[in-house]
TrEMBL record:
CDD domains: mut-7_like_exo. It comes from Rhinopomastus cyanomelas. This is MUT7 Exonuclease. Residues 333-535 form the 3'-5' exonuclease domain. Keywords: Exonuclease, Hydrolase, Nuclease.
């Protein structure tokens, strides 16, 4: 606002006999509040808020103030939200009779003005005296979840009550229509068990509440995980029996409801004997089992069928020859669980000019609350591989009163520019490392000498892998990620059947140890081969230009990030100004840029793919957290919008999650993304990924 206008407004206040009543008269005369921008009425009100603080003698009290408060309450229900705070301050509504305020909000509610009633309750902090279910239900029906989160945001008791209510609505057999029929209009596609489940997990994460508070939602999530595990084991056939069994036992546990569903799934995917054995394992009574399973359980013999086990083992062994084989002897793989055992490891790894392949394994979260924590840290050298039991080592260091002992060596490794650190999707790994040990939260800012093999020309990898995957096996799923790169450079892909192992369970199985060692060691062989003959892989002779990830200067990047992703109360970041956008990172090609698009941005994903960007797009039924899993596994940037941004950006490294304006068309969204990441699109990139 111009200085001249401010002076004119203040002169107007000074000329009024009763400035407070005069402001209300002016606002009451505005019959039609249009738009969400800042109107003249807003500037006058905001200036009054400042002016009245400078002239406290003009403040009203007693009966006169009560009259003004009654008038301003009528205006608050009609004016834009940006006028609420200044008007509440000017007319001291926090001092008004609480029962009177509650009665006014109740009147708004019964009139059907649910949003206005909730906003006013939040501003006046009336929530402790209200019924959380009554206030929040119509907002949820209208898909105003942002407002619901703000309503309970400062009150832990209300947060728990709301979550228990939502969980009760997700109970099997509950008819959601018993809720919806009490209200007029609502969005049925936005109000169902699956949507409510996503909301519950987001609130559990945001408010740091124990998921045990919501057993129905947790059970439903576990059931979806069981379906996923059955798909991986019996349809994709990318998970071995031991791995699958570990996860099933961990998920089902003593939960009778899940045990019954497991038996049902087993009868669909396996034989009756297998279902009966699991029923026997859980000691399930015969009267709750399907008749055929109960009959099989009756005649089940208790000896192990040795011939079946031998046959399965022979199949697993014959399958291994199609995959990358670790070229070092088993004796050179060291599993380290004590501080004393790690000392020779650090002495060798921290040797100047050393080249180290680094990988990490986390227990799969399967969409549950919480950030992934590193269960195993693998470091490969030319002749040996070290597997660090990170949880055990951190626990030991803490017990000995020297919690920073281990983190000191990890920080030293990453900050030493003379040591070449090889990885694949390193930002995601560093984010998981920071979540595991808070002392390492800034290790990504100190990291030097990092070579992220994810930046190899992935377009060429895609083309070649499509040719190779046909003659390697007839039923195997197409390779992706690091396995795809290893297939192209070394001739055979990685065996990923242990990828979704329970990496927290000890002792690790032999297959897990070999898998973990291979994941780290293959980085050394890929890097060596690329260095020897970069041209045959579409790389220039200067591998530094292709492989070494050059982060933009941290202070500037952080400033840009804060401006770009500064969240409004709704969770949607504000726009970036031209001046701020000028602080761009170093330019990259579309071949160096890979993203995963959230399911509300499918149009953007297709548009970026047409421009030559490597894109993965979530399906409509996918949980938003799936984007974070893909981003960490494959080193992709997450593109999302609205509230999911708040959850996803905390699960990946800084700057690896970007919020897109969902109201714009795909073309404008694509331009926004390309500009932010400084991606340079050439004519040859256009339609280069289309079939």
């Amino acid at each position: 606002v111009s200085r001249q206008l401010k002076e004119e407004i203040r002169r107007g206040f000074a000329g009024l006999e009763d400035p407070l009543a005069g402001l209300l008269a002016m606002l009451a005369g505005i019959s039609d509040w249009k738009g969400k921008g800042r109107s003249l009425g807003y500037y006058i009100t905001a200036e009054m808020d400042l002016w009245i603080k400078e002239h406290p003698a003009l403040q009203q009290s007693g009966i006169e103030l009560k009259k003004l408060q009654a008038r301003v309450l009528r205006i608050l229900t009609q004016c834009p939200a940006n006028l609420l705070d200044p008007l509440i301050n000017i007319y001291q509504l926090h001092t008004a009779d609480r029962n009177y305020l509650l009665e006014h909000v109740s009147h708004l509610y019964h009139r059907g003005d649910y949003k206005e009633a909730a906003l006013l309750s939040i501003k006046l902090k009336l929530q402790p005296d209200q019924d959380v279910e009554k206030m929040c239900t119509p907002l949820l029906l209208q898909d105003k979840t942002n407002l619901v989160e703000d309503y309970v945001g400062e009150y832990p008791d209300l947060q728990s009550k709301l979550l228990q209510i939502l969980d009760a609505w997700c109970e099997p057999g509950f008819d959601i229509k018993t809720i919806t029929r009490q209200y007029g209009s609502y969005k049925p596609n936005k109000f169902n068990c699956k949507t409510l489940s996503k909301l519950v997990f987001r609130l559990l994460d945001r408010f740091n509440i124990d998921p045990a508070l919501c057993p129905n939602v947790v059970n439903q999530r576990h059931l979806r995980t069981l379906h996923y595990l059955f798909y991986k084991r019996f349809v994709e056939k990318t998970m071995n029996q031991e791995n699958w069994t570990d996860h099933v036992q961990s998920i089902v546990g003593e939960n009778r409801w899940l045990q019954e569903h497991l038996i049902s799934l087993l009868t669909s995917y396996c034989d009756l004997n297998t279902a009966a054995r699991w029923a026997q394992h859980f000691c399930l009574p015969k009267d709750i089992l399907p008749h055929r399973v109960a009959d099989e359980l009756q005649k089940l013999q208790f000896q192990v069928r040795a011939e079946g086990t031998a046959k399965a083992g022979h199949y697993e062994k014959s399958k291994k020859k199609d995959y990358y084989q670790l070229p070092i002897p088993r004796a050179n793989i060291h599993f380290l669980q004590t501080w004393e055992e790690t000392l020779p490891c650090w002495e060798k790894v921290l040797w100047p000019r050393q080249v180290v392949g680094i990988d990490m394994e986390c227990r799969p979260s399967f969409g549950m609350v919480g950030k992934p924590r590193v269960s195993l840290l693998q470091m490969a050298l030319k002749d040996e591989v070290f597997l660090l039991d990170l949880p055990r080592l951190l626990e030991q260091a803490e017990a000995e009163g020297d919690a920073q002992k281990l983190s000191y060596f990890i920080q030293k490794l990453y900050s030493d520019a003379t040591i070449t650190k090889l990885g694949y999707g390193m930002p995601g790994d560093l984010s998981s490392l920071a979540a595991t040990c808070s002392v390492l939260k800034d290790v990504d800012k100190q990291a030097q000498g990092m070579v992220d093999l994810l930046t190899v020309d992935k377009q060429k990898v895609d083309v070649l892998s499509a040719e190779q995957s046909y003659h390697v096996g007839t039923t195997r799923q197409p390779e992706k990620g690091l396995s795809l790169l290893v297939q192209r450079v070394l001739g055979k892909p990685l065996d990923k059947t242990e990828q979704l192992s329970n990496w927290e369970k000890r002792p690790l199985r032999e297959e897990q140890i070999l898998y973990a060692a291979s994941d780290a060691y293959c980085l050394l062989e890929v890097y060596e081969k690329l260095c020897k003959d970069p041209a045959s892989f579409g790389l220039s002779s200067d591998l530094t230009e292709n492989l070494v990830r050059k982060p933009s200067p941290k202070p500037r990047a952080k400033k840009q990030l804060n401006k770009q992703e500064l969240s409004s109360p709704s969770g949607q970041p504000d726009r970036v100004t031209n001046k701020e956008a000028s602080c761009a990172p170093a330019p990259i090609s579309t071949k160096e840029f890979s993203v995963v698009c959230d399911n509300m941005l499918q149009g953007l994903g297709r548009y970026l793919r047409c421009l030559g960007v490597d894109v993965q797009i979530l399906e409509n039924e996918d949980d938003h957290r799936r984007a974070a899993e893909i981003a960490r596994q494959e080193g992709r940037v997450i593109l999302t919008s609205g509230l999911p941004y708040q959850t996803l950006q905390s699960q990946v490294a800084e700057g690896r999650c970007f919020s897109v304006n969902c109201s714009e068309k795909a073309k404008e969204q694509a331009l926004q993304v390309l500009k932010h990441f400084n991606v340079q699109v050439s004519r040859a990139d256009i339609f280069s990924r289309c079939q």
